[in-house]
Write a structure and sequence with these properties.
248 residues, Translation Initiation Factor IF3, Alpha-Beta Plaits, six-stranded mixed beta sheet, 4 helices
């Protein structure tokens, strides 16, 4: 998959958008609600919580570079040379050419400005730009490439590196595990409350699933729309369910 269209500094998100879309459900949560219960009308309503640490198994990265000259052909020749340097850099780090995504060339015209700082009709030069991106299960490799890529500046390339993004590709399977754990936690909470109230927990009457929160480790950030942090390799995934049990 490619994010070449995100050249010139856009965040690379295609892989992340596909995964994050599957996580967003309609119920907001907050940590302070975990212990909130409702006892009455022959029911107990509790919220169950589950959390697990995961390690990203997919990483994505992009970088862009540009060349400028008073002559359009000279700018193109410089950009073509720089592309070769960039691709060679990636190959030396073990990236296969077929795994690299190279964008089309963008062109910007620079105009001479007048004494008021406004553009005139006189062309001063041209700026051509291009970007390259990759997505790989080799998380360590992508991290290294992102960290070292600005060394291309020493080779005369006007290069800008984007921040690597990290994802976990087995979220759909993990969601089922997390929901089961959160439901088990909800039942344990309901049983404890019922016991202290002199009643017993019966069958569940309804259940509602909350959004998943995927955050940096130890983070307390939550969102009603769900979170998906892509800045760290290690993450925490949190799930919550609200279950209404009958009591007897």
């Amino acid at each position: 998959m490619s994010t070449a269209q995100a050249k010139q500094g856009s965040a690379l998100v295609p892989f992340g958008v596909v995964i994050a879309a599957g996580l967003v459900i309609s119920v907001s949560i907050a940590a302070k609600t975990f212990e909130r219960v409702k006892l009455g009308y022959g029911t107990i309503t509790v919220k169950g919580y589950a959390e697990k640490r995961i390690t990203s198994d997919m990483a994505a990265w992009w970088g862009n570079f540009s060349a400028r000259s008073a002559n359009l052909v000279d700018a193109y020749d410089k950009l073509e040379k720089d592309l070769g340097i960039v691709l060679s850099y990636l190959e030396k780090h073990g990236v296969k050419r077929e795994d690299m995504n190279v964008s089309s060339i963008s062109t910007a015209v620079l105009y001479v400005k007048d004494e008021k700082g406004e553009d005139t009709n006189q062309i001063e030069g041209y700026v051509l730009g291009q970007s390259v991106d990759l997505t790989s299960p080799d998380v360590a490799l992508v991290t290294t490439i992102a960290g070292d890529s600005t060394s291309l500046i020493k080779e005369g390339v006007e290069f800008r590196s984007g921040e690597p993004q990290y994802f976990y590709s087995k979220l759909e399977d993990l969601k089922l595990e997390m929901l089961a754990a959160a439901t088990k936690d909800a039942h344990a909470r309901a049983a404890e409350i019922a016991s202290n109230s002199g009643v017993k927990v019966g069958p569940p009457r309804s259940a509602q699933q909350g959004v998943f929160q995927i955050t940096t480790p130890y983070s307390t950030d939550v969102s009603g729309y769900g979170r998906y942090d892509t800045s760290t390799i290690d993450k925490s995934i949190k799930a919550i369910v609200a279950v209404e049990y009958s009591i007897r």
